[in-house]
Write a structure and sequence with these properties.
The protein is of the alpha/beta class and about 375 residues long. It has twelve helices and 17 strands. Helix content is about 25%, strand content about 20%.
Length: about 375
């Protein structure tokens, strides 16, 4: 099967002319892209179908909310197409295209502003990585790296493997959900994995399955082929309203992933990006759903962590009592914040870490190195 890509709602026969005309107000702002395979997963009789919600625009996206760079990624750009936020990790934005455009995308600015942050010439980014021996892992992202031709991706991976201090290469992709035939139909991609993912230095595929129904026979076949070639596959997903915001659905996702050898990694708080209001769930509600889902999973399926990918670092929500919510930095842009444990009064209306405190300033959280209690 070779799915056909669709970049206009006019090509989606299951959407009527009246609805297409209404949704033009949305697609004028936030682009639409999908393909025949992914659209075939939608139950068009169900107006609340979660796959439809993930890919088909809705008028709710026009609600004013958030901003285009909620995690302040621009702060950490060190070379064209390269971000260096955490000491050991560099991000290379290698593609300005995706297999489908997620309606909840936190980088939709790339598709609004002609992807000025993506640089197809990554030579400066690679030079930066060579000059920084503290970087031991590199994430290829964008956009989706698997939209690149395999020869292009191979060239990038080869150059990274020539840098001795880079042990881990990660490829962030939703293509296993959007178009698993990208893997199934390309033996060259699997040959590249076999060559450059070995017992000393692995390639990790950072997949993004948001709902159990995305784990089709084809998706599982693509996963198996990559695993057989030597890749380690992790999964991360935001927690999304009316998609996976029930403990049963999220637990089903965790359990099905674990059963095929895919490691549940991060569950993200939905970022307050412009257009994302319909997908947002308050932090404390998200945490409750996450913990209820984990409670009915095996140990192997419950390894995910619930985090806020904040401008200052990856902040894990680690606990909740009646009065307080507890946070810990898993990673931080400022080394002094690493491992920092923080306590704030409960705020059921909080959608982002900033809603708990005004102590965020200049890329770090002010306060003592011990627990922080906010009044």
């Amino acid at each position: 099967m070779n799915p056909t890509y669709v970049a206009s709602l006019d090509k989606v026969a299951s959407i009527g002319a009246k609805e297409r005309a209404e949704l033009a107000r949305v697609t004028d702002l936030f682009a639409f892209r999908s393909n025949s395979y992914y659209l075939s997963l939608i139950d068009w009789e169900d107006t609340k179908d979660p796959i439809r919600r993930l890919i088909i625009p809705s008028l709710e996206e026009l609600e004013p909310w958030g901003h285009l760079d909620p995690s302040s990624e621009h702060r950490y750009t060190r070379a064209p197409g390269l971000q260096h936020k955490y000491r050991e990790t560099a991000l290379l934005l290698v593609s300005d295209l995706c297999g489908g455009l997620c309606r909840y995308c936190f980088r939709k600015r790339l598709f609004i502003r002609d992807a000025r942050e993506v640089n197809k010439d990554i030579s400066e980014g690679l030079a930066y990585i060579r000059d920084h021996p503290e970087i031991n892992n590199v994430l290829l992202t964008g956009g989706d790296p698997l939209t690149l031709k395999t020869d292009q991706l191979l060239d990038t991976v080869r150059q990274l493997r020539d840098i001795d201090h880079v042990g881990i290469i990660r490829i962030g992709t939703k293509m296993l959900a959007y178009n698993p035939y990208r893997v199934i139909n390309d033996p060259g991609l699997l040959d590249m994995i076999r060559k450059y993912s070995h017992d000393q230095k692995r390639i990790y595929i950072m997949a993004q399955f948001n709902h159990p129904r995305e784990l089709t026979d084809a998706a599982r076949q693509a996963v198996s082929l990559l695993q057989d070639a030597g890749a380690i596959i992790m999964n991360q997903t935001p927690l999304l309203r009316d998609v996976n915001d029930s403990p049963g659905v999220l637990a089903g996702l965790f359990n099905r992933l674990a059963s095929i050898g895919v490691h549940p990694y991060y569950v993200f708080q939905c970022r307050p990006t412009t257009g994302n209001r319909p997908f947002a769930v308050p932090v404390e509600e998200s945490y409750r759903i996450f913990e209820q889902a984990r409670s009915v999973c095996s140990g192997l399926a419950k390894r995910a962590r619930f985090v806020i990918s904040h401008a200052t670092g990856k902040i894990e929500v680690v606990g909740k009592t009646g009065e307080f919510t507890y946070f810990k930095y898993n990673q931080a842009a400022n080394p002094e914040d690493r491992g920092r444990f923080m306590v704030y009064k409960s705020n059921p209306d909080a959608y982002w870490f900033d809603d708990y405190t005004d102590l965020v300033d200049e890329g770090r959280v002010k306060g003592s190195s011990g627990p922080v209690q906010a009044a």
